[in-house]
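User:
Note these tokens:
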Amino acid sequence: MKIFAKVNYNKAVDEIILKKLTHLQLGIELCYTNSEYFLTENSFQADLKKKLSKYKIPTVSHLPFYGIQFGCIDSNIAEFSYKIVKSAMDSAIDLGISQGVLHLSLLPMMPFHARKKWLTSFLTFFDRLLKYAENAKFTVLLENTWEEDFTLIKQILEIYNSRYLRACLDIAHVFCFSKTALDDWVSELGNYLTHIHLSDNNGDEDSHLQIGKGSIPYDKILPLLKKNANDLTYTLETEIFDIEISVKKITQILNMEGI
């Protein structure tokens, strides 16, 4: 079971964090949360490249999501969103990373009749991004956020049916926002599902709590995932100071289940 820890791009050069993750044998999910660090050339990228090479930590990426809207009917906003995400992807590729998580960013309050226009715009820009990713042999992992069910993500996966397009299932988002059971998400995403995001909450907000501090039944969820999907990788989206406790909790659950 390969586990990664969420670390923001601008914090990943911190040797205290890198040593901690190395000690725990965890990888990094590098989160591109602020474009000021990667949209233009600077020395930060070179420094990060040296640090990741020094510690030899397995790394995946989380592409930008704050304010990103490929589906916006204002093409200038969608185009700038594309520019930011592509810049992050270029940074990740330069660091030797071959995967990146991407949110769809469909707003849940959007009227049903407007979603067709949203999807048309989204696919226009996503098509460009995926072609760019395919040429670089970079896999895009579509993540659920506010989606009430798996329909949209599955639709996009099936439209392209690309080996470089897969799914990331965020368990905490399902628990907070979905009206569809987790079992159905797992079965419907099927072989497209390769990566899982883990954190805890109490169903009221996506609070990224330490595993066991909320009410998500991970004692039932983790065995379900292992049973229904092979070779999954996992990212803990808790705070770094919570990581060790969460890893122990996950390991304890799986050991109790004999998995």
Residues 136 and 230 are 25 Å apart (CA to CA). The mean pLDDT is 94. Strands lie at 2-8, 27-31, 59-62, 99-103, 139-143, 165-170, 193-198, 233-236.
